[in-house]
Specification:
Blueprint: H1 2-8, H2 11-38, H3 55-61, H4 64-95, H5 102-114, H6 117-128, H7 133-139, H8 156-181, H9 185-193, H10 198-209, H11 211-226, H12 230-235, H13 247-257, H14 261-292
Length: about 290
């Protein structure tokens, strides 16, 4: 009787949750398993269960294009994490000083985030090409000035970093500002009474108290880094050559451009495994530590 009661307890809520449960099982878990299984096949245009073992992975890790894409993702990821967090926090501190026209400044900083990555990429492609900043400066009389980031193989990835920071830093600022506004004013008063310098208050008191905000921001930034694709396509399409290739573009090109489904799925599986290797230990430390307490 007890089991029967538990089964029919909150029955309406359980029925309402069925579509979401089915979506998780079929779309997320099902598609993930499908991706992993077919990454071990020699599928070309269409999926076929002709298993070839680790051949696709051997080819993947032996491809210079994949090595370049991983290197570019690391450069973009590290710089994006560092600069977006630092600049976003500094902007939030500036906005938290009850400045005039705060709403206007907040809108200006946050506006780029409302644009799509394609629009952002096209705008920055125009700014950084020879008819953008370089032409403006040369028209001012500096004829020898050169600022051709997008045509420089070693610098093109940094142009993409600049565009990404311009678009995403406003969101980081908004999240940090919300966190700062939740800090009790009494903490600031106590710090002033004790004679603690402002920078020490931020570093040793405010930032540790904003840990949940930093974690949320970090997850959002990391998500944008892993799925980096459309910004690259809009600005450089992976060029010059393959100098700005990224993993998501590698996957798309092999799956839809070059009809090599097995290779694209192998790259997808490696990306998934990398994310899980980082995510699972972090989740265990974050949530397991709380439960232990």
């Amino acid at each position: 009787m007890t089991a029967r009661r538990l089964l029919f307890r909150n029955l309406n809520a359980k029925i309402a949750a069925l579509p979401m449960i089915a979506t998780v099982l079929v779309v997320f878990i099902g598609c993930t398993v499908w991706t992993v299984v077919y990454s071990f096949t020699s599928s070309r245009s269409l999926p076929m269960l002709n298993f070839v073992g680790f051949d696709q992975y051997t080819r993947l890790f032996g491809a210079s294009r994949w090595d370049v894409s991983i290197k570019n993702l690391a450069i973009y990821g590290i710089l994006s994490l560092i600069f977006s967090l630092v600049v976003g926090f500094i902007l939030a501190v500036f906005m938290d000083q009850k400045i005039r026209f705060e709403n206007a400044f907040r809108t200006i900083f946050l506006y780029p985030f409302a644009l799509s990555h394609i629009v952002t990429g096209l705008v920055w492609q125009w700014i950084l090409n020879p008819f953008g900043i370089e032409k403006v400066v040369r028209d001012l009389g500096f004829e020898s000035f050169s600022f051709a980031l997008l045509s420089n193989r070693s610098m093109a990835i940094y142009a993409i970093v600049i565009a990404g920071l311009w678009q995403g830093t406003g969101l980081v600022m908004a999240l940090m500002l919300a966190g700062l506004r939740n800090i009790d004013e009494e903490i600031w008063k106590a710090a002033r009474v004790d004679g603690i310098p402002t920078w020490k208050t931020y570093v040793f008191v405010i930032i540790p108290m904003m840990r949940p905000v930093f974690i949320t921001t970090l997850v959002l930034i990391a998500t944008g880094i892993v799925k980096l694709y459309d910004l690259v396509v809009a600005m450089t399409n992976g060029g010059p050559g393959i100098s700005t290739e990224v993993p998501a573009k590698y996957v798309y090109d092999f799956m839809f451009g070059w009809a090599n489904l097995g290779q694209g799925l192998a790259a997808s599986t490696v990306m998934l495994a990398t994310v899980l290797i980082i995510l699972i230990p972090w989740a265990m430390l974050e949530f397991g530590g709380r439960k232990a307490k």
